Amino acid sequence: MSQPASAAVGTAKSNWFHSKNGRKFTVILAFSILPMLLLFVFTYLPFGEMVKYSFYNMRYVGARKFVGWQNYIQLFKRKDIVGSLLLSLYYMGGAVIQIVLALYLATILSMKAKASGLFKGLIFFPYLINGIAIGFIFKFFYTRGFVLDTVLQWCGFQLDNLPYWLKDQSVNNWSLVYSSCWRYLGQNMVLFIGAIMSVDDSLYEAAELDGANRFQQFKYIILPSIKTIVTLNIILSITGSLSAFEAPFVITGGNNGTGTFFVVMNKVAHTDQKVGLASAMAVFLLVIIFICTLLQKGLFKFLFRNATTDDESSAAKKAHKLAAKAAVKEKRLAAKGGK
């Protein structure tokens, strides 16, 4: 290429960088590089290293030995790890109760109930408390002869007939699940309330004209309209159930059959110094969460297959809204004519 042609190309590039589009591209690139760099350094790079460590027999300090898939095989041979996975079923059961109760309360409190603001604040308040503090609160609450036992004795129960809430393996995991539900119920409820309040009021008015009761309004209007938030809450609940840590670690220390997957992982990594095995546990947990998320999405896609799709055209939505308003107007005119 001749020198004049090269100079012309360079001038064109220089002019483009000084143009509006060029400056816009430069600003976007400058603001994107730092977050992407931080995301890579503190998220994807450590995750890649963790996956690599899962194939080694290693400690935090010392030589490493490549063992291939042995760490993953050990996951299914150790009874404490398999047992901790089964404990997640307790927390999943509690999560189902928590979501159903949160949706029920959100539906009631979004319908202009008396003192709804007070109830919202009281139910949401536990979520603002630190998880470690909640652990100590419930450790004192469940201790033999303290708060819970005292209240039950007021109700006529004998102390000798009450179980040890943190030692009896038939009830101790349910006790821990209750503490988690108590904390996160308000978070789910607030998310549901925000979604319910965004539903168009004309849909309720049209449903009332058709003679729909409250349950039918919930089933055919509220639930399909907030399915995205329901899906989000279920994903968060599944993730939280599989990664429960604070309650069992603080309240029981993982003793008496209450050691969840994260509690056992903490022991394997920091007490036993088996970093490779702990890394394999973390990767395996990620795979389980990913599979559960896919199954949950498939299930909700099947359940809401007849609901209005998210890609419904704006024209159709507008027509539906106008039709509902017209129906309300006709009802008012008919009422005036009857008078």
Count of helix runs = 15
Radius of gyration: 28 Å
At the fourth level of CATH, the homologous superfamily of the domain at 88-254 and 293-308 is MetI-like
Extract low-pLDDT stretches.
308-316
The helix-and-strand class reads: mainly alpha
Under the CATH scheme, the architecture of the domain at 88-254 and 293-308 is: Orthogonal Bundle
Which oligomerization state do the chains in this entry correspond to?
Answer: single chain
Give the fraction of residues assigned to helices.
Answer: over 70%
Distance between the termini: 91 Å
From the 3D structure, determine the CATH topology of the domain at 88-254 and 293-308: MetI-like fold
Number of strands: 2
- The main sheet orders its strands as 1-2
Text of the CATH class of the domain at 88-254 and 293-308: Mainly Alpha
| Residue fraction in strands | under 5%
Task: Give, in order, the helices and strands.
Answer: HHEEHHHHHHHHHHHHH
Shape call: flat
The main β sheet shows up as:
2 strands, antiparallel
Whole-number average pLDDT?
Answer: 81
Question: Would you kindly provide a written description of the structure presented here, covering whatever features stand out?
Answer:
With 339 residues, this protein is mainly α. Among the domains are: 88-254 and 293-308, MetI-like (MetI-like fold); 314-339. It is 75% helix and 1% strand. The protein is built from 15 helices and two strands. It has helices at 3-18, 20-53, 70-75, 79-109, 116-128, 131-142, 147-154, 172-197, 201-209, 214-225, 227-242, 246-252, 261-271, 275-303, 314-338, and strands at 56-57, 65-66. A two-stranded antiparallel sheet has the order 1-2. A hairpin with a 7-residue loop joins β1 (56-57) and β2. α9 (201-209) packs across α15. The longest helix is centred in the first third of the chain and has 34 residues, at 20-53. The radius of gyration is 28 Å and the shape is flat. The N and C termini lie far apart (91 Å). Residues 308-316 have low confidence and may be disordered.
